[in-house]
Design brief:
There is one protein chain. Helix 1 runs antiparallel to helix 6, helix 3 runs antiparallel to helix 6 and helix 5 packs antiparallel against helix 6. This protein has a two-stranded antiparallel ribbon with strand order 1-2. It has 2 domains: about 230 residues, no CATH class; about 30 residues, no CATH class. The protein is mostly helical. About 75% of the residues lie in helices and about 5% in strands. The radius of gyration is 59 Å and the shape is rod-shaped. The protein contains 8 helices and 2 strands, in the order βααααααβαα.
């Protein structure tokens, strides 16, 4: 005797869509699991340093202590004898010329003193000798003072030049460090911009590769969402299903498989010989 029952099944096109979704999902997962990621994404994920950055580092290394020659030159302009290298080579000529002119004028003065003594009738006397000695002593002091003043002026000018040179050397050293720092900073900035651009390219390539790798899975998920929406919004179809009655023997064996079940099956009316 046949047994019938009613079942609510989805529409055939929905059932077909579900099967398609399962096939797509199975294929996408298989491709994702077996993909060679090294070929898809490559081996470089971080952009290396730009040549300009390397140049900046090299320049910074070479520039360490570049100020030292200027510092040494500045130090050479200090100390007790530092002024000597800045003395005018013509100073002695100036002194000699000045003193020679002074001597000429002093000689004229001495002659004038003698002439005055002659005019006074005191030439050759003791008073005339005293005047001559006083004049010579005064002349010698003036001469020595002129010479000292010229030497002092030369020393002062040389010392001032030495101090100015010290400041110049320090300024040059500082300026060189500043200019070098600007060059290093400019190279570093440009290099960083180039590196960032290449990093953006790598990131975009990896993102595209990721999207391509996940595209089958994404498509399957989108298709599955559509099928799920159809199942939820489309009423199922009621189907009458008929099945043959189960054989008592097979039922017993399938249900228990025990000797007691077999025994009960054989003892049901009509299973073995009837009558």
């Amino acid at each position: 005797m046949a047994v019938s029952e009613q079942r609510v099944l989805p529409a055939e096109f929905i059932e077909a869509g579900g099967k398609t979704f399962l096939d797509m999902l199975t294929s996408a997962v298989g491709k994702y699991g077996s993909a060679d990621l090294s070929k898809i994404f490559g081996s470089q994920f971080v952009a290396g340093q730009d040549p300009l950055q390397l140049q900046a580092q090299q320049l910074a290394t070479q520039g360490i202590g570049a100020y030292k020659p200027f510092l040494q030159a500045a130090q050479a302009s200090t100390g007790p004898g530092a002024y000597k290298q800045f003395m005018s080579p013509y100073q002695q000529d100036v002194i000699d010329t000045t003193l020679a002119e002074y001597d000429v004028q002093a000689q004229k003065g001495a002659q004038g003193t003698a002439a005055s003594a002659i005019a006074a009738g005191a030439f050759g006397g003791g008073r005339e000798g005293v005047q001559r000695a006083e004049y010579q002593a005064s002349s010698d002091r003036n001469r020595a003072g002129i010479q000292a003043n010229l030497l002092q002026q030369g020393f002062g000018q040389a010392n001032q030049l030495a101090q100015q040179n010290m400041l110049n050397q320090l300024n040059l050293g500082s300026a060189q460090q500043g200019f070098m720092g600007q060059d290093i900073g400019g190279l570093s900035t440009l290099g960083a911009q180039n590196q960032a651009f290449r990093q953006a390219q790598l990131s975009a390539q990896q993102q595209l590769a990721q999207q391509q790798l996940q595209q089958p899975l994404t498509a399957a998920q989108a298709f599955g969402s559509g099928v799920t929406g159809l199942i939820a919004g489309y009423p199922g179809q009621t189907t009458q299903i008929s099945q043959p009655s189960p054989n008592p023997m097979m039922t017993a064996i399938g249900a228990g498989g025990t000797l007691a079940g077999i025994y009960r099956a054989f003892n049901q009316p009509g299973v073995l010989n009837k009558g």
